[in-house]
Design brief:
six-stranded parallel β-sheet, nine-stranded mixed β-sheet, alpha/beta, homodimer
Chain lengths: 386, 386
């Protein structure tokens, strides 16, 4: 059994406390309590939460430092604002606690590296990321298909991840939202962590990116909320990643092209897997090009097969799976679904995209941390000087 | 009645001669002969075609110069290889003939400008482009919706135009295919003229482009056949254009996002038009962001309406429409469906994309003709030196 201390009791923290204690949410289906996890402590700065927390039979701390220093938990789950992640994670690891960190690991890759270093100097600790979309059963099936190699090498991926509609009234709910000083960025730091992670997980890490990042596009905010990325990969493959917060009926579509097939993923709920009966390049040996199109119309099964996949979704099932996996990682060294390196890669990619947007130049990955940190410092300074 | 001389009797020339004479194609539905057009002459370098042409009751010329100089036609239709377009078009215009030019107008924008100049110095002549996809009834409906302004300003367009699968055996059918000296480029000069034109027609001309152009991607050719473009527009909008010749089951998908709606066009055959009940930005005034998503699930008609449109297609109907329109343009000064300027813009955009790919820099439109021409000359020189 892993004794878990939750740091932060905002929207996400409250959800995790319900999941970890098996408390049903009003009007929602029951959530199976993750095995091998027990919630023993919560830290929340606002003392008004104390009663609610203690009513769950959970120890309350006002300061996360006291929770980390205490002996009531083996692991902490960090669900506080991004800029506070690295200090808490490092302190917890140095105190011998395992860490499950909410996305993004950090704003800056330099801070993420400090967390990874702290884990290395405390080899008894485990560090993993709450990148829960990796636990989606459909995405796991796709990952298995890609890794099996049956579709061959990836040639291109085109990801439109615009399903992050946020109106001005959303950004106005908290003064830190949509600011450089409060969040360290916009959609790249907040909403798009998930698709950036999935893109890396499924298609690999780009070698270089060129990006356009529009700041305050159709919104009264300082940070980027409309991003278009052109990526290239070490093996010569191409990628495009698009994300914005002003697409009302936001498109969520990932297309991956392989030497021997194609995968189309829509809204993380439905996938179409097309498998070619030969490698793409060799169809031209069998048919001339017009004959090929005739067969494609009249006898497509000579060319390809089609499989439709869908997600088996249970309410909060991905979170439950992530907690189970975190416990298994700690107790039996099971493979983490989202290892620390995944958090690092996602931050490195987000940083490189920002840096390319700011400089107007293609940026090679991993980008220079000093360059990114200096640019971000300047953005924060300009904002707070206003 | 417009008397038409056809210059070139290759694949496209043969098709146009059948259309203009109302000759049924074997195994295909009948094609309605375009009114006000009569095919009076064809030039074809290969004298073996003479009998076939004269059997249609059409005058045969071996040299296009003789056809242009003759008095048997009022207009010429140019369907010869790209590099020959400008010399023929300029000669024909200077001889007082109207010109309908196959796409692309030219390889180089500098040559296209010379054609436009020749038309200007011969004000009695009419010059138009055979960009037949503009005659597609579905695309015309979409164009009308966009131009009406009901959906507001365009914010972004994402075009995946990968339905140009061509195997190595296709490129091997003619020695000029897939070469700089023979075609002046690859997919940007040949196959993707249509989607580039449609993109400009529907979404406007970009202000600047950044592009990656892979030459010989998965094919044994010298020219570009895998292109990814990031475009920006004068009003701050964003665009992405993707095209390649190695996607076996090629995606053809154009998404356009507006302030008040969204259009999704698939394979030029099916379109979905989503109209928001308010401008996108103002939904946040009416609903908080979580309430919005609840309504979107349960009562979507409060948020938007959906209209599905499809194309009314007749075999070769778009070509027939283009010929009719060309005659109307000549005889009654009707608006041309694809005016000369459309041909010019398409070439300017293709040139700018190539130049960005070659230089690795963003290129402002229209790009410097000398820069493009020098780069192309170097590509041709390198190729022929091998």
């Amino acid at each position: 059994m892993v004794r878990i201390g939750l740091i932060g009791f905002g929207q996400q923290g409250k959800l995790y406390s319900a999941i970890l204690t098996g408390t049903p949410l009003p009007g929602m289906p029951p959530i199976p309590k993750p095995e091998e996890c027990v919630l023993t402590a919560i830290s929340a700065r606002n003392e008004i939460c104390k009663g609610q927390i203690e009513a769950m039979g959970v120890r309350y701390f006002q300061n996360w430092q006291e929770l980390v220093a205490s002996d009531v938990c083996d692991a902490v789950v960090i669900t506080v604002p991004h800029f506070a992640h690295h200090e808490i994670a490092i302190t917890a690891l140095n105190a011998g606690k395992h860490v499950l960190c909410e996305k993004p690991m950090t704003v800056r890759a330099s801070d993420a590296q400090a967390i990874l270093d702290a884990q290395q100097t405390n080899p008894g600790t485990k560090l993993a990321m709450m990148l829960n979309q990796r636990a989606n059963s459909l995405l796991q099936k796709i990952k298995t298909i890609i890794d099996s190699g049956e579709l061959g090498a990836i040639r291109s991926s085109y990801y439109i991840s615009n399903h992050w509609w946020r109106p001005d009234s959303y950004y106005a709910t908290n003064p830190w939202r949509g600011t450089w000083s409060g969040e360290g960025g916009g959609i790249l730091v907040n909403q798009a962590c998930h698709p950036l992670d999935l893109w890396i997980w499924l298609c690999g890490m780009p070698q270089a990116v060129y990006a356009r990042c529009l700041e305050g596009a159709h919104r009264n905010i300082a940070v980027e909320n409309d991003v278009t990325v052109l990526a290239r990969y070490p093996d010569g493959g191409q990628g495009v990643f698009i994300t914005c917060s002003h697409d009302l009926l936001g498109t969520d579509r990932l297309e991956i092209n392989f030497a021997k097939g194609k995968i189309l993923l829509e809204e993380n709920r439905k996938a179409t897997v097309l498998r070619y009966t030969q490698p793409e390049g060799s169809f031209g040996d069998s048919y001339d090009f017009r004959t090929f199109y005739g067969i494609l119309m009249q006898n497509p099964q000579e060319i390809y097969t089609r499989e439709e996949l869908s997600a088996e979704t249970a309410f909060c099932g991905d979170y439950v799976q992530m907690f189970r996996n975190f416990a298994g990682y700690i107790l039996r060294d099971e493979n983490p679904i989202a290892p620390a390196q995944a958090g690092m890669h996602q931050v490195q990619l987000a940083n490189a995209i920002q840096l390319s947007g700011w400089t107007g130049q293609e940026v090679t990955l991993p980008c220079c941390c000093d360059d990114y940190d200096n640019w971000l410092a300047r953005k924060i300074q300009e904002e707070t000087a206003q």
